Amino acid sequence: MLANVLISVGILGAFALVFGALLGAASIIFQVKKDARISQIEEILPQANCGGCGYAGCSAFAEAVVRGEAKPNGCSVSNDATYQKIGEIMGISVEKRRPMTARVMCAGDCHSAPVRYDYFGPKSCYHANLLVGGPKMCKYGCLGLGSCVAACKFGALSIVDGIARVDPEKCTACGSCVANCPRGLIQLVPKNAKYIPLCSSKDKGPAANKACSVGCIGCKLCEKVCPKNAIAVRDNLAVIDYDKCVSCGVCATKCPRHIIRKFGK
Amino acid sequence: MFKEIIVISLSAILVENFVLVKFLGICPFLGVSKKTETALGMGMAVTFVMALASLFTYLLYTYILVPLDMEYLNTVAFILVIAVLVQLVEMVLQKMLPTLYNALGIYLPLITTNCAVLGVALLNVQEGYNLLYSVVFGIAAALGFTLAIVLFAGVREKLAMTAKISKHMEGFPIALVTAGLIALAFMGFSGFQF
Q: What mean pLDDT is predicted for residues A200-224?
């Protein structure tokens, strides 16, 4: 009996030994030399592995750059200096990238946006959103339970007065909060954009008025006063084209609901 | 002999289809069947590995385990052989045929834990096939797997593109219903007597 056990253990052990040796030898014989540039690029990347570039991580992105598949400035977490270095390694010139930041397109904090019911449940916007359309009167507004805060790897988001706010200094525009907002409130906008309409409500005027005191009612005043035609009301919601916007601020002064907010200096 | 080969192939592909009749290899069948292209890639990789696995497990069983009277070790020994084989094939392909390696991609290492591969090795022993029949059975079973996964992927693609599916049935529920219906269709083949 014991002999049988020992023999079978011995045989399996011998198999494992032979196979292990075989694999070890094969890995030396069939070694594939990797492009040295991959590890060089990987070293200067931020190693956040956030996936904002669309690849599985920083090393996958580095491989894609060397293959010529990804652009050297594809990493939204890095800055221009890094892009230049990657360009030097690859021997190509790199154009500068417009720095972006995430913004939560909602201004309906606890002072201005009424709630329909008190929510006691898991601290997750996904859960709250499923419960009869969310606790807020406005079915587009920020629920303030911090699913985006939990998703951010850089600590750039926080909940202020019941809604999420982005710190543009910390934000790297990786986009993981954008993907983790069940209401799709978060957008990537240019970092230097001064005037941003902070509302996502597609309700018509009266309904928007009822749901929130700082909701866009689609009155189109901003559209009329903009000298550059940079702002347009689509689906009862003001949207700015940041390529056309010259940051004159006329729209912000005219907006009766004060939803076009000024950012930065 | 020629007749035997045809009988083994046809019954492995249609009558005794690994996925739809024997319920082996369900994991990749559900996991990699969202697109026809990737399904075909997976099928190719499985065919490749299953042919090699039936060959090597047959050799191991007949020339090592049987002389040593250690037939009862076959399951664990086959797992070992298949895992090593897949690793080895991956390394060789990466060096020799990088294009094929890239085409198979992630599917090759995934196959290591595919129960269809182990299943074919064990069934070969059970049926008492010789070397040629073992390899033929392995290839045919893998082709049956490929057929099933490509058909299934085609239906899933079409469902995702055109059909209006109610919200609670989206994703896996409808996929499982589809798989059940295809399996039902394959039951029709079991009426054939070879």
A: 88
Residue B194 confidence (pLDDT) above 70? no
Q: Name B115's Cβ contacts closer than 8 Å, sequence gap at least 6.
A: B24, B25, B27
Give the span between the Cα atoms of A32 and A26, in whole angstroms.
Answer: 11
* All CATH 1.10.15.40 domain ranges in chain A, comma separated: 36-90
Structure tokens at A235: 């689906």
All CATH 3.30.70.20 domain ranges in chain A, comma separated: 100-262
Reported ipTM: the value is 0.71
How many angstroms separate the Cα of A185 from the Cα of each of A99, A112, B95?
20, 17, 48
Tokens at B161, concatenated: 């593109």
Where residue A47 falls (left for φ over 0; alpha for ψ -120 to 50; beta otherwise) is: left
Min CA distance, A32 vs chain B (Å)?
6
Determine the pLDDT at residue B192. 64
> Given a cut of 90, is residue B146 above it in pLDDT?
yes
Pick the CATH number of A100-262 from 3.30.70.20, 3.40.50.360, 3.40.50.970, 2.60.40.1180: 3.30.70.20
Average pLDDT, chain B: 86
- Best CATH choice for the domain A36-90 from the list 3.40.430.10, 3.30.70.260, 1.10.15.40, 3.30.470.20: 1.10.15.40
Chain A closest-CA separation from residue B176 CA (Å): 25
Record the pTM: 0.56
Q: Where are the beta strands (DSSP E) in B108-167?
A: none
pLDDT at position B134: 93
Which residue, A111, A90, A92, is CA-closest to A40?
A: A90
The chain B residues in contact with chain A (CB within 8 A) are: 68, 70, 72-73, 76-77, 80-81, 84, 87-88, 91-92, 94-96
Q: Which residues in chain A are contacts of B97 at CB distance < 8 A? A: none
The string of pLDDT tens digits covering residues B1-47 is 888 889 888 888 888 888 888 888 888 888 888 888 888 888 888 88
Residue A106: pLDDT over 60:
yes
